[in-house]
Structure prediction request, 211 residues.
Amino acid sequence: MKKLESSLTNMVLVLTGVAVIMGGVLAFVNHLTEGPISQQKAKALADGIKAVMCVSDVTVAKTDTVRQNDAKGKELTYIIYQAKDAQGEDLGAAVESTTGGFGGDLKVLVGFDPDGKILGYTLLEHAETPGLGAKADKWFQKGEKGDIIGKDPEEPLTVSKDGGQVDAITASTITSRAFLLAVNNAYNAYKATPAADAETGATKQEEEKED
Prediction:
């Protein structure tokens, strides 16, 4: 077999061939892993909804997407999972909310009851510092130092350093602010959905009757 001459043309052809082969291999691997990754994310979300709504048997009756602008005018997207229990009773909703934390995006799933009070939360994604900002997954849970469970964010939640009512994570004020902003934004998005507006209206009518 005649040996290929060492030339720029041959080198380009060889490199192009290698690139095409590697691209094909990567595409094949991506195709194989796409399904399992998607299933894993779906399971994590389903488990997260159960956790934040504080029930083991929950059904997502409807999924809404709400877009709102933040204080800087940037459009943010929120996904609202309207939840019902096994008897079909309204539980409220679980809301996906993302803000920028200290290390990167901080994605939170927050559960609200029909009146807007916080039932629970979980971190879906974060890039916060281990041992510091990463403590957000526990710090604000019921019974912990920054407990927000049962609170109504109609008055935005803020850290005590900013004159608010929530203790920030030690040495992680930036993460704490980002987390509470995500919760506040989730509440605003939830209240912007028709189901939440209808429920709030019904609640107010009941209160007026009692008065």
Remarks:
- Helices lie at 8-53, 136-139, 173-191, 194-210.
- The chain has four helices and five strands.
- The first strand starts at residue 59 and ends at 69.
